[in-house]
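I am still getting used to backbone structure tokens and would like to learn alongside you. Would you supply a protein for us yourself, any chain you care to pick? Start from the sequence, derive the backbone structure tokens from it, and show both lines together. Go ahead whenever you are ready, and we will take it from there.
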Amino acid sequence: MCFAAASQNLAHTHSRAAHSAILLLALLTMSSVPPAKYGFVGVGTMSSAIVRGLCTLDQPPPSIVLSPRGAEKSAALAKEFGSIVSVAASNQEVVDQCDVIFIGVLPKQTEEVVRALNFKASQTVCSLVSTAPMALLQECCAPVAKDQVVRAIPLPPVAKHHGACIMTPRHPRIMKLFDALGTCVAVETEEMMKKMMPVTCLMGQFYAQQRATHQWLVRQGVDGEQAAKWTGAVFHCVSYDTAHATAHTFDELVDEQTPGGLNEQVLRELTDAGSWTALQDAMDGCLARIEARPAPKKRKRPYESTEEE
């Protein structure tokens, strides 16, 4: 083999090796979180979902320590993921053993629980408590640096790596964690986070919309199981194109509905009924509660529908 050919072959081999290394690194970073010992003070529904999501990643964290608060859930997670999850004897033991601590207790208990803990300056604290203000958390978690105290509002599908999370401030480690469990949106200020939080209150109406659809199908004589399977599949399908939305996505998708078509008919009838105004009014009320101020007073007229004789 001539020198030029040998050099070209060697370069090609190195290129393939480099490509393989890059691909392996990409795969690892897509399904893993930064190595650390993660601790959870309070193990309710949301904390359990995060733990389950972390433990089922391709590259899970080496250690997760749970507090005895929520004993039943903690024991179940430790039993299922025994090589990763352990249960501490106290909340302080969680803090003593971990680098990143999640606070997931009830809002009325937050200040009392967090003030009783002794943190280290090197730690990161992520609060999952929707109503606990940042200033209080920063005070209670001292000597943890203020920029290492984070507020996050994730949704339960993080357990299946399809969650959504809004958080503040931007924190690379916590952002990477929630991106591994779905989609994370980080905003700069607590005020902006509050304005985005009412969107997380739409789960109930989304499920109620599916329930109403299912009930309608059953009234048409469709088998209940078939109606449920079809309703769930269609709602999941039509939301697919918005999973990674831009500022223009929703306008574009609404504008795609053919004028005079069946989709446009449903859209027009719900618009005429004031559905979107009612939705935004409800979000106004949620935001008022989140910002601890009186809800705006509005004159509302309920939608009525009766068949004409």
About this structure: The longest strand covers residues 149-154. The radius of gyration is 25 Å. Residues 1-30 have pLDDT under 50 and may be disordered. DSSP finds 13 helices and eight strands in the chain.
